[in-house]
Design a protein that fits this description.
With about 525 residues, the chain is of the alpha/beta class. The protein has helices spanning about 5-10, 25-30, 60-70, 100-105, 105-125, 155-170, 200-210, 210-215, 240-250, 265-270, 275-285, 305-320, 325-345, 365-375, 410-415, 430-440, 460-470, 500-510, and strands at about 15, 40, 75, 130, 175-180, 220-225, 255-260, 290, 380, 390-395, 420, 445-450, 475-480, 490. It has a six-stranded parallel β-sheet with strand order 2-3-4-5-6-7. A six-stranded mixed β-sheet has the order 9-14-13-12-10-11, sandwiched between helices.
Length: about 525
């Protein structure tokens, strides 16, 4: 634990988050002296404000701070477009999400979106874009993937994953496909518990691995593991499972295997972040994503970032000391991480930035992105013109920590200057739900109910059923996955983003006499 060379070797596989918009002293020291691989950016590290289509050149303070220390630092960011954005967390993403792109099914548009995501990320200082999602969303109940996936077909997802990888890596960033071996057939959120894939291995091979194969063939630089159990491959979650990660290597992947965040409940509340880090390295992972220090909410300590980092660092050092973790395993992982940092410092994977086939200039991509959002929307039933201001009854579930924000930009955009009423269906007893919905429905003018989960047994669907009798002229705006026909006219946006909300608001303004299909 006191060997400087071994401490630097450990640092080379650690990827922490940090608090604040300035690099804390501990992080600067670890980057400059401790051999730290880099860090992961979250919204609280970045300037607040909307990123316009032409602002890719705006460089944030983290960008210059990291580059001043070392040119091979790996800086990651969850920037998927659609629901998941760090750069535009306060105002909503202005780029299409995966489900929108999958509905349009134009791989040139997907490549262009990937390029725009990468350019914006690079301007903020991040050279590893934690996207695209390669999960095939085969379980409609999925609480964490849903519209973050391109679709429910392995063929569709595969071609768009490959296009996104090419777009991201065409401008000198690394793409990171996730969440191997596939999080699309789960109905448990691994941020809160440990999910199990109950399907057999043959179905995993047929339905969920093809997009990862497509990403590998497209030259993806990194792959992120999923915290989920495949019983036929063992009791340990994929992140900690040598059989699962060995399967990824057997598929031909030679790049960096990145763990999903070790502070997620699927690891922290089962084996613990420190022991989980050691097990991940033993299983074949290369880069340990420690997580977002703000995930503890009100319990976050002023030095939570350093506490989380030291917990994992100490566990790995202790495993070296007692022989649990062979030095050679750590050396292999550190070497893969080093090669990735060197490649990115050199401008990309071919040594220079190249154009991705079919992409457009990022500065002009805003209009094209809006077109994708409009085309991706589907409409069930005629929608009468509903000019603003509108009353919006927002009955969506609260955002997961994967989204890194709980702003009301979607509801506000749909309200168009009107009122937003938030109804937490989980907090209202069933016998009082009708009264709560009826009270909200008394609002004058145009009325919109905003939902994101309309499965057969969801409370959100119950609200829609009630409104069908109480206020039949109301319109549903569904930012989740489309489902069975509803008793009200419905607009399905396939994303909870600023871009999607503005497209839906524009449609509500003029109405739609016919049902639209993507």
């Amino acid at each position: 634990m006191h060997d400087p060379a071994l401490r630097r070797l450990v640092g080379a596989v650690l990827w922490p988050g940090y608090l604040g918009r300035e690099l804390p002293d501990w992080l600067r020291r670890e980057l400059a002296e401790g051999g730290l691989a880099g860090a992961v950016l979250f919204s609280h590290n970045l300037p607040v404000g909307r990123v316009a289509p032409g602002e890719a050149g705006r460089v944030s303070r983290p960008a210059s701070a990291f580059r001043d220390l070392r040119d091979d630092v790996l800086v990651g960011i969850d920037e998927e477009g659609g629901n998941v954005t760090r750069l535009e967390a306060a105002t909503g993403s202005t780029l299409p999400g995966a489900a929108q792109l999958g509905a349009v099914d134009d791989t040139d548009a997907t490549a262009a979106t990937g390029r725009a995501l990468a350019e914006r990320s690079l301007a903020a200082g991040a050279n590893v874009v934690l996207a695209p999602v390669a999960d095939v969303n085969t379980d409609p109940r999925n609480p964490v993937i849903g519209v973050r996936a391109f679709g429910d077909s392995p063929e569709l997802v595969s071609r768009h994953v490959a296009a996104a990888v090419r777009g991201i890596q065409s401008v000198g960033a690394a793409a990171c496909v996730k969440h191997f071996p596939g999080h699309g057939d789960t109905h448990v959120d691994s941020h809160h518990a440990l999910p199990t894939l109950t399907i057999d291995v043959e179905e995993i091979e047929r339905m969920h691995l093809p997009p990862f194969c497509a990403a590998i063939e497209a030259g993806v630089a990194t792959v992120m593991t999923g915290h989920l159990v495949v019983p036929q491959w063992g009791d340990a979650p994929a992140t900690l499972n040598a059989a699962v990660l060995g399967r990824l290597r057997a598929m031909g992947f030679e790049g960096v295997i990145v763990t999903d965040a070790l502070d997620m409940a699927a690891v922290r509340e089962t084996v613990g972040a420190g022991p989980g880090a050691v097990q991940a390295l033993l299983a074949g992972a290369d880069l340990l994503c420690i997580g977002n220090p703000r995930n503890r909410g009100a319990a976050t300590a002023p030095d939570q970032d350093e506490q989380d980092f030291r917990e994992v660092q100490a566990a790995v050092l202790a495993a070296l000391d007692d022989g649990t973790l062979p030095v050679v395993a750590l050396e292999r992982a550190a070497e893969r991480v080093r090669k990735l940092g060197a490649a990115l410092a050199g401008g990309g994977f071919s040594g220079e930035r190249t154009e991705a086939p079919g992409t457009t200039d990022a500065a002009s991509w805003g209009a094209d992105a809006a077109s994708v959002a409009r085309t991706a929307m589907t409409v069930d039933g005629p929608v009468a013109p509903a000019p603003g201001p509108r009353t919006v009854l927002d009955v969506r579930g609260r955002a997961t920590i994967a989204v890194d924000g709980d702003a009301d930009y979607v509801a506000d955009a749909l309200a168009a200057g009107g009122r937003v009423v938030r109804l937490d269906t989980g907090a209202v007893p069933g016998d009082r739900l009708r009264g709560a919905v009826a009270a909200a429905a008394e609002a004058p003018g145009a009325f919109v109910v905003l939902v994101d989960a309309i499965g057969a047994h969801s409370a959100q669907r119950d609200v829609i059923e009630l409104l069908g009798a109480i206020r039949p002229g109301a319109v549903v705006v569904n930012v989740g996955m489309p489902g069975a026909r509803l008793p009200l006219a419905a607009v399905h946006t396939r994303a909870a983003s600023r871009l999607a909300a503005e497209a839906a608001s524009a449609l509500l303004e003029v109405g739609s006499r016919r049902e639209a299909t993507a």
